[in-house]
Amino acid sequence: MSRDAAPQRHARLSLAAAMLNAAWVGAQSRAWLSFRRALRQPQAVQERRLSHYLRANAGSDFGRRYRFADIRSCAQFQERVPLSSYESYVEAIGRMRVGARNVLTSARVRCLQPSSGSTRAAKLIPYTADLQAEFSRAVGPWVFDLARTTPRLLGGPAYWSISPAAAAREDGTSTGAGARTRLGFESDSAYLGGWLRRLADGTLVACEDLKHAGDIAEFRHRTLLRLVSTPELRLISVWHPSFLTLLLDVLAASWSELLADLARGLPAAGRLRREPPRPRRARELAQADPRRPRSIWPRLALVSCWGDAQAATLLAQLRARLPGVAIQPKGLMATEAVVSLPFAGQHPLAIRSHFFEFIDAAGNARTAWQLEQDESYSVVVTTGGGLYRYQLRDRIRVTGFLHATPCIRFTGKEDSISDLRGEKLSEGLAASILSRLLPAYVPGARFALLAPEAEGATPGYVLFVECEAPPSTQLSAALESALAANPNYAYCVQLGQLRPAAVERVAAGAAERYLERLRASGQRLGNIKPAALSPLVGWRAVFAR
User: What separation in angstroms does the CA of 399 have from each of 38, 333, 363, 372?
Assistant: First the structure.
């Protein structure tokens, strides 16, 4: 083979990737145009969405119970159908799991997708073709807008993070009475459904089988092998930014081993495919610096990840580690629904995807066209999957408007409440406190988590911080003063029910140990949102490992 064979091969792969990307992005042009038009008329678009749900599901058990056929307005819908949580649907989902039809929707449930829960290890979210289309109506405009603003993304493949499986899934079919409904999609891209999914798969670095890795070390090693063998990588999309920073840490620490395995390949293992030998690529990378990712992926153009709430600190660190690479904060997305998307430099509501309501400070339900600038709300969704007036427990703040549609920022989970002695500390309060204190007292903190510790007779709160130098000795007093602004907390400390807050510096790798504890409890990595507060105890032992 000639010395020019490798460049020629890379050129052919780049051309193939560019053609697939062009087809994938071109397929989103209609969704982009429709979304752009919808931004100017949120009320009409949202009313049509609600009307569709009422008509389509009037014959379902849920629709008959609440007389969907008689509802003529948003106000009637709000009066007749109560706000709900996952617990409201447990019985119905149990019936669907064993094959019952026409329960929450008239459409067939394609699968029950596992998602982490606040009151149980996992929730099962029903997915229909309608819900898949709703996700596509948000992903499409985002992808097309990315291509318009960063056209060099089209020249090569993308990596979308895969979550290792937390537990074995029980598969089944839903093809007849009594048959069990499938638990979970067979691949993450199946959220899109149909031919869009097949097009999307063709533009990605193939990593779907890695969710079956035996442990997190094998998962990361094989992920890195596939990424370093892809010189034309243009886009990295992950959820929590620590997913990527931890990968970059492993990349630097195991560089020699990665190059050796890249040169000789790795055999198939269980459900993991073989890693073919790529000695030429290994030789190319011999001069690269694993601490400078652009020396490995010179055309990497953009990283998409969470950037709100507690992710903001890690986002700044990621920018420092990837100079020259654009970092785009994601919109707000959950297994149940997509709430916002990056578009035209802002994060407008996914106005064409679901019917949205927002609970204000007084407990009143507002529609998307009734939101006000700089106000905070709790998100409520009605979706094509059969969740009606479902409280996501996500707090958002309105940052502005794109045409007539609100743009939002995620500020924290409202159902993350720590309440050992009646103090009722919330995620939102903890996030606000840490956003003020960390830059002042621990600049460059790589990880921070406030959590209760129940060792001894009197529990107390500890701020676990990973940082280069010891945190300021004044931080404990500042933290206690900020927490005491919550009168319930101050009263508990005054009565001796809680110890005053403390600060503990933890060893490197705290983010990895945090994620691994939650993953071991049944949560998928992609579902673990950034958090400032954990109601769980026992973190001192976790971080000491």
Answer: 19, 17, 21, 9
Q: How far is CA 182 from CA 78, 96, 170, 386, 488, in A?
A: 32, 10, 7, 17, 45
335 occurs within a structural domain: no
- Which pLDDT does position 219 carry in this prediction? 87
Query: Which residue, 50, 66, 46, is CA-closest to 58?
Result: 66
274 lies in the same domain as 383? no
Closest by CA to 390, choosing from 64, 117, 109, is 117
How many angstroms separate the CA atoms of 169 and 165, rounded?
Answer: 8
Contacts of 517 (CB under 8 A, 6+ apart): 536, 539, 542
Residues 353 and 312 in one domain: no
d(CA 379, CA 365): 10
What is the C-alpha separation between 228 and 224, in angstroms, rounded? 6
Q: Looking at residues 469-494, what average pLDDT do you find? A: 88
Among the candidates 389, 413, 437, a domain finishes at 413
User: Quick one: which of 63, 77, 88, 89 has its CA closest to 365?
Assistant: 77
Predicted pLDDT at 2:
40
Give yes or no: residues 361 and 439 share one domain. no
Q: Is the pLDDT of residue 26 over 80?
A: no
Query: CA 199 to CA 27: how far, in whole Å?
Result: 9
Tell me: the pLDDT tens digits for 86-130?
999 999 999 999 999 999 999 999 999 877 554 444 688 999 999
For residue range 248-279, what is the model confidence (pLDDT) as tens digits? Answer: 989 999 999 999 999 999 999 998 999 999 99
Tracing tokens 């400078």 back to the chain, one arrives at 292
Number of DSSP helices (H) and strands (E) in the chain, helices first: 18, 16
Residue 15 lies in a domain: yes
Instruction: Give the end of a domain, one of 380, 413, 446.
Output: 413
How far is residue 83's CA from residue 389's CA, in Å, rounded to a whole number?
5
How far CA 388 is from CA of 11, 34, 88, 101, 105, in Å, comes to 50, 25, 10, 17, 10
* Whether the Cβ atoms of residue 425 and residue 411 lie closer than 8 Å to each other: no
Q: What is the pLDDT of residues 314-359, one digit of tens each?
A: 788 889 899 999 999 999 988 899 999 999 999 999 999 999 999 9
- Per DSSP (E only), the strands in 136-258 are 158-160, 235-237
User: Do residues 160 and 308 share a domain?
Assistant: yes
Mean pLDDT throughout 372-385? 97
Range of the domain at 512: 417-543
Question: 421 with 58: CB under 8 angstroms?
Answer: no
Work out how many domains the chain is built from and give that number. Answer: 3
Q: Produce one character per residue of 257-291: b if its CB has 16 or more CB atoms within 10 Å, e if not.
A: ebbebbbeebeeeeebeebeebeebbebbeebebe
Average pLDDT, the chain: 86
Q: Which of 390, 389, 408 is nearest to 398 (CA)?
A: 408
- Does 344 map to a domain? no
279 and 380 fall within a common domain:
no
User: Do residues 408 and 449 share a domain?
Assistant: no
